[in-house]
Write a structure and sequence with these properties.
Elements: H1 3-20, H2 29-37, E1 43-51, E2 57-66, E3 74-81, H3 90-104, E4 109-115, H4 119-126, E5 130-141, H5 147-155, E6 161-167, H6 175-182, H7 202-215, E7 218-226, E8 231-239, E9 246-254, H8 263-278, E10 284-290, H9 294-303, E11 306-317
Parallel strand pairs: 3-4, 9-10
Antiparallel strand pairs: 1-2, 2-3, 4-11, 5-10, 5-11, 6-7, 7-8, 8-9
This protein binds coenzyme A (COA).
């Protein structure tokens, strides 16, 4: 995709988000350019631009086709129509192209996300998608936290475990342990989505680090390591290039044998402490959790995260050959 098309894409997404998600910062032009032009992990992307008779782009659609074994039945679409050009069939035109590509690629499941109770939700239902998962989006304002409480939680002793952390790609000595811990994310509640599972190994965690670095984003990780060398849990924060004020929560996982000991809260509190010390430009963290993920929501509420919006994921089930 050319730099011009990526800039136009950004304009449509920014206008669409300002309309449907007021107050939610849209990705910056650099972020969109990187998303559209740099390789993703275990997937490739198809894109469409819908243009009016005057040559102006009024809508965009992207389709992520997963390639890893265990997820190669799945595709995820993103669709935006400029609010000034809606209800004229552009969204439907774009979605037809997306669905056609899913058939060509023999995909069984197509997922889209839309703000709860938004035009996107009505559109998805009209097209025969079924609601499969509701996500609660939460925000933690770093300047509103109780400092003493945070430090008490982050500095707590957890006998048998120690904390470690890194920036970017995992250090070689921890790569296998980290890959094993990443498999715990396959337990994440995904509602009725046909989400599949991916198996992690050291090469895949290194590839993930490279993809994020090539996009220009920074990935911070804090992990709890057991005395026997097992990585018991970890949490990841992404600082997007150009807009690091709102940090994005990536994974948080505690492996099943180590659950129930407060390790999830511990690694997340230690991450907040680190963010505040090393990245003062970060003012808040956004995360999203399945609305039935009671344990993760409890940890996040305990840290001070507050719910502020909801999205729904919809799935279209497609015939395959
Ligand atoms: C969802 C979106 C892409 C629809 O684009 P659009 O060009 O307006 O869509 P269409 O004109 O093809 O609408 C098709 C059907 O969707 C439904 N629909 C679309 N917008 C609607 C709204 N505001 N209220 C109720 N139904 C709506 C209608 O059934 C419509 O059919 P009709 O015009 O025959 O009644 C657009 O609203 C958008 O960009 N939303 C924000 C991004 C988003 O939520 N994307 C994810 C959804 S897949």
């Amino acid at each position: 995709m050319s730099a011009t098309d990526a800039a136009v894409w950004h304009q449509v997404v920014a206008a669409s988000m300002a309309h449907d998600l007021p107050g939610v910062p849209a990705p910056g032009p650099g972020q969109i350019h990187a998303q559209l032009t740099k390789p993703a992990l275990g997937s490739r992307r198809l894109t469409w631009l819908a243009t009016g008779a005057d040559g102006v782009t009024v809508g965009v659609a992207g389709l992520r086709l997963f390639a890893s074994p265990g997820r190669d039945h799945l595709a995820e679409a993103e669709l935006h129509v400029d609010p000034a050009h809606r209800s004229r069939g552009t969204g439907s035109l774009l979605l037809s192209a997306v669905v056609e590509a899913c058939r060509t690629e023999n995909r069984r499941s197509l997922i889209v996300a839309a703000a709860a109770d938004s035009p996107g939700e009505a559109f998805s239902k009209r097209w025969g998608f079924r609601p499969a998962l509701t996500l609660d989006h939460l925000i933690l304002r770093l300047d509103e936290m109780n400092e003493a409480d945070l430090l008490r939680t982050a500095n707590a002793e957890h006998p048998g475990y120690r904390l470690t952390g890194w920036t970017g790609t995992v250090p070689d000595g921890l790569a296998d342990a980290f890959a094993a811990a990443k498999d715990a994310m396959n337990d994440m509640p995904v509602g009725d989505l046909d989400y599949g599972n991916v198996a992690w190994d050291a090469d895949r965690v290194r590839a993930m680090g490279k993809v994020i670095a090539d996009r220009g984003d920074a990935l911070l990780t804090i992990a709890a390591v057991h005395d026997d060398g097992t990585m018991a849990g970890y949490t990841e924060i992404l600082l997007p290039q150009g807009s690091a004020a709102r940090a994005q929560q990536y994974d948080t996982a505690v492996v099943p044998a180590h659950r129930g000991h407060g390790l999830g809260l511990w690694v997340k509190a230690a991450m907040v402490r680190r963010l505040r010390a090393e990245h003062p430009c970060a003012v808040e963290i956004e995360t999203d959790n399945a609305d039935d993920n009671v344990h993760m929501l409890a940890v996040n509420h305990r840290l001070g995260f507050r719910s502020y919006r909801r999205t729904r994921e919809f799935q279209l089930d497609l015939p395959t050959t």
